[in-house]
Amino acid sequence: MIDVSVFSIPWEEFVNSFVVLPIYGQILILAGVIAILTLAIVLVYYILKGAAYLVYYILKGTYYLIAGLGLLFYKAFRALYYEISGRPKPGNVSVQQPVTPQIVQQAESPIPKSHLHIQSDAVFCTECGTKYTDLMIKTLSNKGSAFCVHCGNGLQANPIEIAM
Ligand SMILES: [Zn+2]
Fold first, then answer.
1. Of 55, 85, 115, at which residue does a domain stop?
2. Nearest CA among 113, 121, 118 for reference residue 156
3. Nearest-angstrom CA–CA distance, 102 and 112
4. Residue 163 three-state SS
5. Do 133 and 101 fall within a single domain?
6. Cα 105 → chain centroid
7. CA of 132 relative to ligand 1 center, distance in Å
8. Which listed residue, of 10, 34, 79, 100, carries a Cα 20 to 30 Å from 60's Cα?
9. Domain of 21?
10. How far away, in angstroms, is 106 Cα from ligand 1 center?
11. Do 57 and 103 fall within a single domain?
């Protein structure tokens, strides 16, 4: 017989005392044992679950800590590298606001076609470069539009641009 003891009572003695008990006593003890076992299982389950959560959060926290430290070190070494090498940081370029196509268009052609180039007292056609005649300038200033006598390019003007 293997010497198994329950709460320091020898197993044989325990079984003997159990057998001599009346049937309702046995059922009561069995029910108690089942209840204790169930409680123990539930307790173990929650303990394991808690332990698992603890381990999970510890690992997660460690991961974020390592990731954060890694990023910090990366940034520090990167800054140091650019500081030593004297190269411009590529990150600075991306920081600048992206230029919208509208702004690009305006930047490329700030003066629309058929507008005037004004050089001191002379006005030239943007299409062919012919100097404007006095009649053309007069027509332009009076009507706000004229046609080039050389190439026939239509010209729009506002009074400010042809202030003579
Ligand atoms: Zn012209």
1. 85
2. 113
3. 14
4. coil
5. yes
6. 29
7. 8
8. 79
9. 5-85
10. 24
11. no
135 C-alpha to ligand 1 centroid (Å): 14
Looking at 51, 85, 119, the residue that finishes a domain is 85
Question: Whose structure tokens read 């180039």?
Answer: 117
Please tell me the distance from the alpha carbon of residue 37 to that of residue 123, in angstroms, as a whole number: 104
Question: How many Å lie between the centroid of ligand 1 and the Cα of residue 126?
Answer: 7
Q: How far is CA 126 from CA 76, 107, 116, 135, 148, in A?
A: 55, 18, 6, 17, 10
Please report whether residue 90 resides in a domain. no
For residue 120, report the distance from its CA to the centre of ligand 1, in Å.
Answer: 19
pLDDT at 65: 94
| Count of domains for the chain | 2
Q: What is the band of 116 on the pLDDT scale with cuts at 50, 70, 90?
A: low
**pTM of the predicted model over 0.90:** no
CA of 14 to the centre of ligand 1 (A): 120
